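Backbone geometry:
***
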Amino acid sequence: MPETPAIDIESWVCPAPLRDAPNIVMGHGGGGAMSAELIEHLFLPAFGPAAEAGLGDAAVITVGDARLAFSTDSFVVKPLTFPGGTIGDLAVNGTVNDLAMAGARPLVLSTAFILEEGTALQDIAHVAQAVGTAALAAGVKLVTGDTKVVDTGHGDGVFINTTGIGVVDPRADIRPQRAAPGDVVIVSGDIGVHGVAVMSCREGLEFGTTVASDTAPLHGLVAAMIDTGADVHALRDPTRGGVAATLNEIARAAQVGVTLDERTLPIPAEVRDACGLLGLDPLQVANEGKLLAFVPPGDAKRVLAAMLDHPLGVRAAVIGRCVAEHPGMVVARTALGGTRVVDLPLGEQLPRIC
């Protein structure tokens, strides 16, 4: 049997923290700077010419006359059940939403379950039922899958991987690189809710009211936005790393600046209070049922109106604009009239939220 060639780590062009931290840490899965460095400086060089340089949340592939969106995601949230949802809802909605952010109507999903030995069958059945219910609600079929079992202590009950395929609306050309100076930035509703819901359940925190996850399938909302005839430039669902990470990724992909108005950010009081108590930035807290849209200024009013008319967009708001200044950087105007840089998070403020 041929020997496996040695990997020359010294040949990597790699900034901290990869070289300074020779092992994987939780921050590498947080959707922030550490995740980006892991992809750019380890995975892409290792994949070589077999990899597409983009490696986005969803790829658009042309097959004949059709454009198909393709996406895969893994879910390791703890606990398995939290206010407003379960890991099963998250697995379906998360992949459906990645397809929707490419302007696609989701069609089919695969589901792969990694189960820890000793997990109660009742708990697995509860998660599986949530997967089926969420798929039915989203209008997608579960067409293939896999199941593996790992030894006790080598998992956390249930991990799920879902892969989805959808058909891209022929009217849509939606990708981060199309964000342009002048674009209006719209968020579809309250931010930071999912992260705080999981944290409150996991840490036993109480805020005087139940904070429920916003997990939901967003393709219907996206379809309503496209139906306005607007030229939607970019869409993203701000999951890991929150709004801050998503805006930074789009700004860097399009080489534009983004200016936010903090006074217009829809942050619920309970989210603001929880983040204030724990020293967290609501812009970096995860969402699972919200989207960010970059649309030309001439289309902004009708897109916002369509969002407000949809059940999943009733709290939509304009939160900022694209600018030619400070390309690749996100800046927020504070309520006191100052400005601050909204940087890409290093790792994950709240690990295991999806």
